[in-house]
Design a protein that fits this description.
The protein is 82% helix and 0% strand. It is an all-alpha fold. The chain folds into two domains: 254 residues, no CATH class; 213 residues, no CATH class. The relative contact order is 0.12.
C-alpha cells in the first residue's frame, strides 16, 4: 500500500493536519504531564477544584475572545489590502472585552465563588483565574494569527513553548515549593504573560480600521455565545457533581474528562487545518465534494481513534495517574464521544458559518444547555453519577442534529451525513461494550482487537475511495 502524492485539497488538509497536529498534539501531550503532578501532589478534592477552576478559565477565555479568533479567519481571506487593519481591529476588540469583563467579574468574584463551590474557600484562586484567562486570551490571539497567516514556525513556537514552560514552573511551584492550587495557577499566568510579550515582538499590525469593529463583533459574538454554551456543559456537570456527589466523585469525573481530551488532540489539529482550507476555498466549484469527503474522512479517522483510546483505557489511566482513578473511565466515554460529535457537527453544519448566520448556532446551543439540565435532573436519580455525563451527550446529539438540518435549509450545501454518523455511532457502541465487558481477559483482548481491526478496514476503504490510498497488486 502507498499514499498517492496528488496536489488535491484533501492531501493539503492531511498535510496541514499533520503539521498543526504534531504541534498541537505535542503541546497537549506535554500538558497532560501536568496530570501526574496534580494527582500525586494534590488531594482528590483539590484536584477536582483545580480542574473546575481551569475549566471556568477556559470558558472565560472564550468570552474574552468574543469570537474574534473565528471572525479573523472569516474576514481575513476576503480582504485585499486591509488585512493588517482587520488584525488591528480584532486585537482591539479582544483587549477591550478582556479588560472590561475581568474588572466586572473581579467585582462579583465573591458571589460567583459561593455559587460555584458552595463556599468562598477558593475566592483567591477564582481571582487568579481571571488573570489567567486575560493572559491566555491574548496568547490565543497571537497563536491564531500565526495559523491564519500560515506561519507554521511561529505557531509551533507559540503553542509548544508555553506548555513546556508551564510544566516546569508547575513542578517547581506544586512539588518543590508546595504552593498547591495557587502554585499551579501562578505558573500558568507567568508563562502566558511571557509569551504574550514575545508575540508582540513576532507580529506587526496596523492601527485598527474602525469600520471593521462592528462587522467583526456581529460575526464573532454569536460564535462566542455558541462556544460558551458548549463550554457551559463542563461547568454545569461539575456544579452538579460538587453539590450532589461531593469532591471525590468530582475528582474521578475530572480525570475522566481529562482522559476524554486525548481524542481532542487530533480533532483540534484537524480543525486547525480544515478552517483555513474551507474559508479560503468555499467559493470553488468543488467545495461541496471537499466538505463531503472531509466529513467521510473525519468519521473514519475518529471512529478508529475512539476505539483505540478505549481499548487501552486502563493502561493509559494508570500511566497518567494511578489505580484510584480507574473508575473515572466510566465517565470518559460519553465525554469523548461528545467531543467527536462537536468536531463532526462543525463540518456538517458549515453552511451556517459560510452564510454568516452564526446566531443560529447560539440559539441551538442555548436549547441544548436547557435540555442538558433537564436530562440531568431526570436521569441522575435513576442512574447515579454517570447519568450526568450521558445527559450531556444526549443534548449534544440533539444540537448536532439540529445544526445539520438547519444548515441544509439555509445554504446550498446538502451533505451526505448518514454513512459518516453511522460509523461514529458504531465506534461508540464498540467502545461502550469494550469497557463494560465482564469476561475473562482473553475474551476482552480478542473483542478489542476485532473492534480495532474493523475500524482499520473502514478507514482503509474510505482512504481508497477518496484516492488517498492505493492498493498495489502483488506479483505472482
Amino acid at each position: 500500500m502507498a499514499i498517492i502524492k496528488k496536489g488535491n485539497k484533501l492531501q493539503t488538509l492531511l498535510k496541514d493536519s499533520f503539521v498543526y497536529g504534531l504541534t498541537f498534539s505535542l503541546s497537549k501531550f506535554a500538558y497532560l504531564l501536568l496530570i501526574p503532578i496534580y494527582t500525586r501532589f494534590l488531594t482528590v478534592g483539590m484536584y477536582g477544584a483545580l480542574d473546575t477552576l481551569l475549566l471556568i478559565g477556559a470558558m472565560l477565555n472564550i468570552i474574552f475572545l468574543a469570537g474574534q479568533e473565528e471572525a479573523l479567519g472569516r474576514f481575513y481571506y476576503d480582504a485585499l489590502d486591509e488585512k493588517k487593519g482587520i488584525i488591528g481591529a480584532v486585537f482591539s476588540n479582544i483587549l477591550l472585552a478582556s479588560l472590561l469583563l475581568t474588572a466586572l467579574l473581579f467585582f462579583f468574584s465573591e458571589q460567583l465563588t459561593v455559587i460555584i463551590f458552595n463556599s468562598n474557600e477558593y475566592l483567591y484562586e477564582f481571582r487568579l483565574i481571571l488573570l489567567y484567562s486575560f493572559s491566555t486570551a491574548l496568547l490565543i490571539f497571537f497563536r491564531s494569527l500565526a495559523r491564519w497567516e500560515f506561519k507554521k514556525k511561529s505557531y509551533f513556537f507559540l503553542t509548544l513553548a508555553p506548555t513546556i514552560s508551564i510544566i516546569v514552573l508547575t513542578f517547581i511551584a506544586v512539588k518543590v515549593l508546595n504552593l498547591g492550587i495557587r502554585g499551579a495557577l501562578y505558573s500558568q499566568i507567568i508563562s502566558n504573560t511571557l509569551f504574550v510579550l514575545i508575540g508582540f515582538s513576532l507580529f506587526r499590525f496596523s492601527p485598527p480600521k474602525k469600520r471593521f469593529f462592528i462587522p467583526l463583533l456581529k460575526y464573532g459574538i454569536p460564535i462566542m455565545i455558541t462556544i460558551s454554551l458548549a463550554s457551559l456543559y463542563n461547568v454545569i456537570d461539575k456544579a452538579f457533581y460538587i453539590h450532589i456527589f461531593g469532591g471525590d466523585t468530582l475528582g474521578l469525573y475530572s480525570l475522566g474528562g481529562r482522559f476524554a481530551l486525548f481524542i481532542a488532540l487530533p480533532q483540534s489539529a484537524f480543525w486547525a487545518a480544515w478552517a483555513p482550507l474551507i474559508f479560503s476555498t468555499y467559493k470553488d466549484r468543488d467545495s461541496l465534494d471537499t466538505i463531503n469527503n472531509t466529513l467521510l474522512l473525519f468519521s473514519a479517522l475518529f471512529s478508529l481513534a475512539l476505539v483505540l483510546q478505549f481499548s487501552f483505557a486502563e493502561i493509559i489511566v494508570k500511566i497518567i495517574s494511578n489505580a484510584v482513578y480507574l473508575e473515572g473511565i466510566k465517565f470518559a466515554l460519553p465525554l469523548a464521544f461528545l467531543i467527536v460529535l462537536e468536531g463532526s457537527s462543525n463540518i456538517s453544519s458549515i453552511g451556517i458559518e459560510l452564510e454568516k448566520k452564526t446566531y443560529i448556532n447560539a440559539l441551538i446551543l442555548a436549547g441544548g444547555a436547557i435540555l442538558a439540565i433537564a436530562l440531568i435532573f431526570l436521569l441522575t436519580p435513576l442512574f447515579s453519577a454517570p447519568a450526568i455525563a450521558y445527559a450531556l451527550l444526549l443534548s449534544k446529539v440533539f444540537t448536532t442534529t439540529a445544526r445539520i438540518i438547519i444548515s441544509s435549509k439555509i445554504s446550498s450545501l446538502h451533505l451526505k451525513v448518514i454513512r459518516p454518523y453511522l460509523a461514529l455511532a458504531l465506534s461508540f457502541l464498540l467502545s461502550f461494550i469494550s469497557i463494560n465487558l465482564n469476561s475473562p481477559l482473553f475474551a476482552v483482548i480478542l473483542f478489542r482487537a476485532a473492534a480495532i481491526a474493523l475500524m482499520l478496514i473502514y478507514l482503509a476503504v474510505v482512504l481508497r475511495e477518496l484516492g488517498l490510498l492505493k492498493m498495489r497488486k502483488m506479483r505472482t
